[in-house]
Protein: Proteasome subunit beta
Amino acid sequence: MEVLIGVQGPGYVLLASNLNQVRGITIMKPDDDKSRTLNDHNLLLYSGEAGDTVHFAEYITANIALYSRRNEELELHTEAVANYIRKELAESLRSKHPYQVNLLVGGYDLVDKQAKLYWIDYLGSKAQVPYAAHGYASYYLLSMFDRHMTPTTPVEEALALLKKGFEELERRMPMSLGGFLTKVVDKDGVRIIDLHGKLTPELMVQFEQEKVHAPVQQELQPQQPEVSA
Structure:
């Protein structure tokens, strides 16, 4: 039971995911970060089959880092990132082992000076949206965002609305979601925001360290856990 939420406003994108990693009726991990920082101004959230999600996220992260290193540290903007991810999913869909992942991509475009949010599903469908959700959150939160979110909503109001959405999910859902990890992407980069007040200093350090990825030397190939030559 995974929940991904995203809202986009003037100059910012808020992205949140629940912390519990669940398999059947068992909580496998209570502090699962379902996101990857792709570069300084782009963030990826993922949900779906456990093996597919982590492998696909690492594959995308590594290849975006590789592109940057091959092109004089050029940072891909959000639309290019979303198009690349959509292409990889579309090609995977036509293979013997398609990825079963649903994604949210949020970022800040340094050229256009705008924040952008993209919704992508496992079929390779992609749409730029002002707000989005994957999982059961879509049943409860999209109508609330439709009513209260506007193109000019400041980040403080969006955070309050997001917190209200968390409370609604905890009230309506029969299972505990384990709290939420919220991140904001704007012109200053990617930052963690503790809306619940439940993130311990140790968890904050852990999540910050997970943003730092090992150097990528060569391009990864789909469905292979190792970096190919």
